[in-house]
What we know:
- With about 140 residues, the protein is α/β, with parallel strands linked by helices.
- It contains 4 helices and 4 strands; from the N terminus they run αβαββααβ.
Amino acid sequence: MLFTKEEEAGIVQSIRAAERRTSGEIRVFVEDYCMRDHPVERAAEVFHLFGMFNTQAHNGVLVYLAEKSHQFAIWGDTGIHERVGFQFWDEEKHLLREYLQRDEAADGVRAVVAQIGERLREHFPVDEDKDENELPDEIIYG
Length: 142
């Protein structure tokens, strides 16, 4: 397993903290090996498999990690991607890569979740009267 129970709890807490300030949704998916040629293909597949495209504002984001094949990707739905573009995702991938190279995966995921949460907040601020948690916050293990 990539994360200890304490690290896992910290990641879930960072997701919840980020989502308190936005209508956006963030999920983390971890598996041993990437079963596609490129991790972004697998991230897109997982995104659809878990119905993340069904958020009302199309503002879901998936952080995908394949532990043993040392691959990762970040996939954002159309609503957020149209507002932040490829440069933002590249910056987030660069940040996560730095943490992964130092063998600090949990810290990297928390940092990326926090930054994604900030961008989601900018473009999709929370409406406390209408906001609902559309997707579970727990890490998905494949």
